[in-house]
Design goal:
With 113 residues, this protein is mainly alpha-helical. The protein has two domains: 63 residues; 39 residues, no CATH class. Helix content is 77%, strand content 0%. The chain has five helices and no strands. Helix 2 packs antiparallel against helix 3 and helix 3 packs antiparallel against helix 5. The chain is elongated and about 60 Å long. The N and C termini lie far apart (37 Å). 0% of the residues are buried.
């Protein structure tokens, strides 16, 4: 039990410091802006811009999901959630995160690989 708590604290510490990855949105926007200008302004589309922006967004989403979970920033229906015990809230967080997060990761892996 003590080992599990240490592992969870370590994961939370990494997730708390992963907010720096929010800055990935800037290069992603720059790449997409470049692609739009080159594609429509000069009629010379690139092959790499779309793939690179998907990869950057994947990292942004996956790491940002952990960061948001640590700071309890996800949107939920508090009318129901507030009435549950802490244990049931944790179980609901685990289930809903898995239901909405894992399919995205699977689709992202299928698209990239």
């Amino acid at each position: 039990m003590i080992i599990l708590k240490r592992v969870l604290r370590s994961i939370d510490a990494v997730s708390k410091h992963s907010g720096i990855f929010a800055w990935l949105i800037i290069p992603m926007c720059a790449i997409m802006t470049y692609e739009v200008v080159v594609r429509y302004g000069f009629n010379a589309p690139t092959i790499w811009a779309n793939d690179l922006s998907k990869l950057i967004f994947g990292v942004y989403f996956v790491i940002g999901g952990g960061y948001t979970l640590v700071y309890d920033g996800h949107v939920r229906v508090d009318v129901l959630f507030r009435r549950l015990s802490l244990r049931k809230q944790a179980i609901l967080n685990l289930v809903t995160s898995s239901v909405f997060f894992l399919p995205f990761v699977v689709v992202l892996l299928i698209e990239v690989v």
